[in-house]
Amino acid sequence: MKRALDLALRGAYHAVPNPSVGCVIVYQDRIIGEGFTSTYGGAHAEINALQSVRPEDKNLLPFSSVYVTLEPCAHYGKTPPCAIRLVNEKVKAVFIGVLDPNPKVSGKGVSLLVEAGISTHIGLLEKECRHHHRHFLKSMRTKRSYVTLKWAESADGYVAPPSNALEQQNITWISTKWSQQFAHKLRAQHAAILIGSHTYFIDNPSLTNRQWAGKSPFRFIITRNADKFISLSRNDLKDFGILEINDSQQQHALQATSHIATIIRAKNLLEALEHLYTAGFRSLMIEGGSNTLQSFIACGAWDEAYVFKASKKLHQGTQAPKLSDLKPLGKSEADVVWHTLNTSF
Q1: Are residues 126 and 54 in the same domain?
Q2: Which of 34, 46, 153, 244 is an active site residue?
Q3: Is 0.85 topped by the overall pTM?
């Protein structure tokens, strides 16, 4: 199963919105096939593993065990059910890391295997499999996007120098080349990325993935007034979505304009995350600014946080968000993933 998890990581940058699953086929302690989830719309891990089996080993499948990080699917989507394919191949046993919470699967894949007389085992390296599939599992259970917070802060808790330093182009980078590359890795792992309108106008960040394998996330700007973006004629907005949060909102609409890719309107952040999930965005990375990050923390609308801690002090500037004594609403400590990564500059 450890090998299956290693394989699953290889698909983590292109399988979205599908979960990136790993699969290994073993005959008498010898791996005869392995695979991971293809780009969305392509074959799943089990199918790729079966197709990797050499012709001379095909006859070994009825005597082989299959190790898969997530329950084999049991429904027809863009591809046929993997559970049925395993049944047709008459494999000897299937070891599953974690059950799939998708109502279209949720135990149905296991039932197909058991009914076919295949020895089926659930929970092998379950903790590790749950961690790997956390975006998919949590979003499927809560029906909202899985939210990852990310920022870099100085040793004394600032994310940026004073505004006058920025205006004079006297910029001090808090992050390092390593942490910047790691941030791009995180971008590749998420379906969407979000910044505040202030960050968009001041920094005009590209938010694309340029330093890691995989595609770039879809980009969103959060604002309380989408009209100010609708009235703009900036060409770069055609590749952005606008997320409008306004508690006086009378209708919750999903729309597009000639120069904005999509506009999602909601009364609050939690409702917005539900709309994003419905639109197909299973995971969302919040990259700034500080007020935007703090707003997600304040209402518990987050699941994971990466905080890059530098050794140098700025002494003044924009204060970093505060996570102390705060955790996502309705979750235990075990549900919270909090990483503190030390850097230097």
Answers
A1: yes
A2: 46
A3: yes
